Amino acid sequence: MAALGAATGRLPYAYERIPGQPTAILEEVPGADTGPVCPLDKRYVDEQPDGLRPDVLDAWRRLRAEAKRQGGTLCLQDSKRSMRQQQREFADAVRRFGTPEQAAKYVLPPEKSMHVKGIAVDVQPYASARWVERNGRALGWCRQYENEYWHFEYTHDNATRGCPPLRPSATGT
Ligand SMILES: [Zn+2]
Questions:
Q1: Among 8, 86, 119, 149, which has the minimal tally of Cβ within 10 Å of its Cβ?
Q2: SS3 string of 68-108?
Q3: 135 CA from centroid of ligand 1 (Å)
């Protein structure tokens, strides 16, 4: 724990995953790397939402249940990532886009990613993401970026205060 705080310059964000068990550092908790093929579109997967913050996991299950009630299916292309998983994705994006600045429009570095904090999900395919954009707010889920139709973040307040305005990308430009 001390090592993580020292490495990132911030206090680790901790929660008790299982009452009575040792506290895990949320940012170090990995998510699934992949999952079974999405039944709606084989370009995507539908992974398990392992490692999401407990209230976010509950909210994800409610969202999925509501979609199902309305006859829809949501595929979870990606959700929780550990600092290490996010660092790997960011490094890949830097190779693909050429610079850290360009890469950050699509994949944030670990210390900024809401996937690392366990509050973000990437929903596919497109029609399913559009459904979440239209129906997710009441359950606390909001799209964030113009350039990522698939990326949603949960906060309890979204349901009452409404979603924030869309930003062009994760870097704001
Ligand atoms: Zn995302």
A1: 8
A2: HHCCCCCEEEECCCCHHHHHHHHHHHHHHHCCHHHHCCCCC
A3: 18
